[in-house]
Amino acid sequence: MLWVDHYRPRSLDDLHYHEGLSDRLRSLAASGDFPHMLFYGPSGAGKKTRIACTLKQLFGPGVEKLKIDQRVFLTPSRRKLDVNIVQSNFHIELTPSEVGNYDRVVIQEILKEIAQTQQVDLNAKQRFKVVVINEADSLSRDAQAALRRTMEKYMSNMRIILCANSTSRLIAPIKSRCLLMRVAAPNPAEMKAVLSYVASRAGAGSIPDEAADEIISDANGNMRKAILVFEALKMQTPDLSGPLSIAKPDWETYCHKVADMIVKEQTPQQVMEVRSKFYELLSHCIPPTIILKTVADRVVERADESLKADIMHWAAIYENRMRLGNKKIYHLEAWVVKVMSLYKHFLFDIDMTGFED
Amino acid sequence: MEVEDEDDKPVKKKPQAKAKAKPVLSPKKPPAKAKVKPARTKAPKDEEDIDEKPEPKPNWAAAKAAKLAGPSAPGSKAVPEPASPDCLAGLAFVFTGELSSFSRDEAVDLAKRFGGRVTGQPSSKTDYVVLGDNAGPSKLAALKKHGLKTLNEDEFLNLIATRKGPKGGAVDEKAKKKQEKEMKAIRDSAKEMEQREKEAQTAGPSKTPGYGFRTRTVDPSSKLWTDRYAPQTLKEICGNKGNVEKLRDWLNDWCVLPNDLKSGFKKPGPQGMNVFRGVMITGPPGIGKTTSAHLCAKLAGFTPIELNASDARSKKLVENSTNIANTSLDGWMGGGSSTNAAGITITDKSCLIMDEVDGMSAGDRGGVGALAALIKKTKVPIICIANDRSAPKMKPLIACTFDLKFRKPEAAAIRSRIMTIAFKEKMKIPANVIDELVTGVGSDIRQVLNMLSTWKLSSSTMDFDEGKMLSKMNEKYAVMTPFNIIQKILGPYLFSATARETLNEKMELYFHDYSFVPLFMQENYLRTIPARVRDDDGPLKILRQLQLMDKAATSISDGDLVDALIHGPEQHWTLMPTHAVLSTIRPASFLYGNGAGYGGPNAMSFPQWLGQNSKQTKLNRQLGDVQIRMRLKVSGDKSEIRQSYIPALFPHIVQPLMDDGSSAVDEVIERMDEYYLSREDWDTIVELGVGDNKEDLVLKKIPAATKSALTRKYNTSEHPIPFHKAQDLGKAPKKLAGGPAPDLEEAFEVEDDAVDDVDDSKKASDQDDIKNDKLILEGGSKKKAASKPTAKGKGTGKAKK
To answer: Which domain of life, per UniProt (chain B) (predicted)?
Structure first.
């Protein structure tokens, strides 16, 4: 198994960073008055790990016995929806965004079912079950509204833990019903500590400082990515000495290629080339916001100082539009054309002043 | 309206006919024209206000002033009083480029109004080329090649004002003779028609064979024109001559050795037709399919038996009614000849005409199949007639019939026939008016006749404008294909300074197909050579083009936001016009120009979005499968799996196969089992790669033997299973009541809950039934199936750990 999964902390005591948060979770679990919670933070910061640890603290090792249950729902238009539910005896975990527009009905259906059944295990430490809702920030507005009443009504039987990347897409009533738990990305020192812990556990000895720094700057606060990269590097060069070349994931290299195309040539033909590359990325399940961010970062890297602010400004605007709109490619393309136009104007300005001199 | 390219080709064929018909038929013309003219020249000025293009900051007053100021203002030139009403008769024109005062349509109209012909491409037969600004390069080349005379706008108007038509003796002797000859032909055929009618009336019933005593003679003047003037000889059929001859020959050959019937349909004959026992005629309505079929059958000595959509034609009835041998006494008792069960008169030579076979619909269940079966063994010729050959229900017939495709006849082919009829009805209609009518209704002869017979009630003459109005009133609403729409929108004319289309008319194009047109626009808006930067050069041109592209792309992006509101939970359908403007009209207004379809380098293409979107949905679902299998070990969501885990797993489960081949199979399978990945998930992971990890690049490096070794090895060994698919367990799906509810209160539908409840309780009892659980097998089932429960036991055991 990959190191990142193998050496994942299993209990609150094993966690390496955010000690304060761990203490709070520990005392909350002990108090008997456990609230609804919302964990949020960037990916790879350790939200899910902390949720799992908290559940273990609440219910004991029983929560680690997971099983997956697939439910089928039939929509009024006779389409079958598969919903995957991960559950133990004490908790249940679902990702309602899997079913797109039907998330509201699916959530209502499943929550009601859980709320209406009491805990049957007499030895259970808690009288309630916990429902973990993943990707809460991609819940539709309908579904969030449906959650809001349920959270109060069934409080005696059920607690909800939401897990999201950011709270901006959650409606205020939901936020106010939850205890907000921010899981920030670890800082470099913390990441280094984790990396050396993993290295020693994996029997890889110690990790050289330069290598650790390199990995940490590449991971940009994403612990999962750091450990995956570390393992990959270890496979390539077992002693981790000398100049390291961190292999970028396939999609990132591809995004960089797109950025280079934008900088290289600004013509309608090039826009169409870029469009087909975007289609390739989108159809292979790279989220459009990630594409925009990666490409924009790279373009900014290569563009002149005076353009950087503008490029990022438009990237932000089109990212927002992308979230509001239906067809992501339209907005990506509009951004590309905008950047090309800016870039060309900038180039010709340089040329002309050159001639004047 | 791209008159230039297609619409007017038909006119090209018979250059002189129009001119000849003219003098006799249009003496009344000048007054009518004088009346209409001033109104026409004025109109453009009024329309201008509506017709402004959407600009970011509209400065209406300035824009209007600019348009009116120069000589290039539309409507600035009046049409002169023509020297004679048919002053352009006998001349062929080609228009290219934009005139300063008239839109293309108006100019073409002018030429036609005064008897000229307008063709799309210059050829050696063209008399004048009217040149405007930005003429098309291909036309300029052709112009040089043929050494044609050119006119500018003023010279063109001058020509109208000064040239005397054929009446004034401008036409040469030869043309005159031809003209007279044609006139004589018209008179002769009219006379012949009259003769025939009289004969038919006096001869009475005995003259019409096959219809028996039931037929009564009717006064021809009370008949519909379409019946009255239905062609009686092959010569009179307009257009499709070749096909009609083929049909006639096929029928003639039917009983003649060594063909068809007597040879057992073995000898194909000169046309390859004689192996078929049936013929299928397809083509648009009103071009004489039924008429030709009847006529050919009669001429070949057959008695046509027609069954059309008004007859029930179910399987049973087709079998019975066409059973020619099954005669009944009914008809015989009535004193006529013998009839069959369906009451159809039988002679030894019958020919079955199945009209409107594409109308054999719900009521005629199995009819098409029965007909096909019948055709395979029939001893009488069967002619099927349909409008649309490609319809799926025509499939059974296609294999067993010979295909005769009737095309719309060109205006020139119909003209003389219509003129003959008009002459006989004592109507005075010039040839160019008839052409206008014919092209206006898309060469539907039947409709032209109906229009004329209605017109006859109020007036016996018709001039150009009346004709245009009439054909406009009877215009068929044809839905354009998205390709045509997008060519028109992005083409150089719709947004040019002289175009007269209003914003509403432009939006109409979007509403032809509002789901496809925006997609086509987004796919193709970059493929033009924008007319707006035509006059710029060098860097400025590139800069301005990029600026226009930017505006267009922004507008498309705006359009998508509106689209999200329309198709979102609140369903703001009232925003459709806004969407039309933002997604289609506005981008085109920036980037219209030569390009796709107008001699530009890029062809219009079908939107990629559709294919890419369904690919994305498919891969996303597969990624979901991978994620849920890995879920027991991995906490990440789908996008984390794609972004971090797949690149991380790649060197462990795919790379070894590329590097070491079959020897790595065991190691790979071990790795896959750690994450509960199945063989299909391996495919998904490979499929999800981009760039250097792209599927085909990767698969190229894995020998087929290695891949099959992986499959074999994987299938023969046992693997931990995280869960069973719900479908495999035979779980009954739970019905959801609501679905994604629209936010609007009124959009909710009242549902019938009672029915659902019954269903649910039934489902629930089903669910409890142990027999429905596929994992619990009854005793004595096969060994193969028995391996399943063990796998499950193992799987859950491991999963629970």
So the answer is: Eukaryota
Q: What is the pLDDT of residue A40?
A: 94
* CA pair distance A146, A108, nearest whole angstrom: 7
What was the pLDDT predicted at B752? 42
Q: Which amino acid is at B508?
A: E
Q: Do B559 and A286 touch (CB under 8 A)?
A: no
Minimum-distance CB partner of B648 among A66, A142, A228 = A228
Minimum distance, in Å, between the CA of residue B536 and any CA atom of chain A: 15
Confidence of residue B520 (pLDDT cuts 50, 70, 90): very high
Chain A residues with CB-CB distance to B691 below 8 A: 250-251, 253-254, 257
∠ CA A310-A312-A316 to the nearest 5 degrees? 115
- Give residue B602's pLDDT band: very low, low, confident or very high (50, 70, 90): low
Choose, out of A2, A95, A233, A257, the residue to mutate when testing the contact with B (most B CBs < 10 Å): A2
Q: Which helix (H) or strand (E) holds A70?
A: strand A67-74
The overall average pLDDT reported for chain A is 87
Separation CA A47–CA A40 (nearest Å): 7
Written as six digits, the tokens of B464 are 């150009």
Task: Yes or no: say if B309 and B355 are a contact pair by the CB < 8 Å rule.
Answer: yes
pLDDT of residue A340: 93
| Spatial separation of the C-alpha atoms in residues B371 and B358, rounded to whole Å | 12
Confidence (pLDDT) at B2: 39
Check CB contact of A276 with chain B, cutoff 8 Å: yes
Predicted local confidence at residue B750, as pLDDT:
42
Rounded Cα distance, B108 and B111, in Å: 5
pLDDT of B394? 80
User: Taking Cα atoms as reference points, which of A195, A227, A216, A179 lies closest to residue A31?
Assistant: A179
What spatial distance separates the first Cα and last Cα of chain A, rounded to whole Å? 64
Residue B431's pLDDT is 80
Rounded CA separation A346/A302 (Å): 13
pTM for the complete prediction?
0.68
> What pLDDT is stored for residue B466 in this prediction?
82
Both tokens of residue A105? 């009905």
Chain B residues within 8 A of A135 when measuring between CB atoms: 637
Residue B555: what pLDDT?
A: 95
Q: Which residue has the higher pLDDT, A10 or A120?
A: A10
**For residue B68, what are the CA distances in angstroms to B40, B46, B103?**
17, 12, 15
B360: helix, strand or coil: coil
- List the structure tokens of A353: 């002043």
User: DSSP states of B479-518 as a string?
Assistant: PPPHHHHHHHHHSSSTTSTT----HHHHHHHHHHSTTTHH
ipTM (interface predicted TM): 0.90
Chain A residue numbers touching B569 (CB-CB < 8 A): 140-142
What angle, 0 to 180 degrees and rounded to 10, lies between the N-to-C axes of helices B482-490 and B503-512? 150
Nearest Cα to Cα of residue B151 among B206, B109, B209, B111: B111
Q: Which residues contact B58 (CB under 8 A, 6 or more apart)?
A: B52
pLDDT over threshold 80, residue B563: yes
pLDDT tens column, A31-46: 878 899 999 999 889 9
The answer to whether the beta carbons of residues B407 and B239 sit under 8 Å apart is yes
What is d(CA B231, CA B413) in angstroms, rounded to the nearest whole number? 14
Closest CA to A230 of A286, A189, A192: A192
Q: What is the CA radius of gyration of chain A?
A: 24
Sign of CA dihedral B546, B549, B555, B557: negative
* Residue B210: both structure tokens together: 């096959």
**pLDDT of B256:** 64
- Nearest by CB to residue A337, choosing from B553, B646, B691, is B553
CA A153/CA B742 separation, integer angstroms: 25
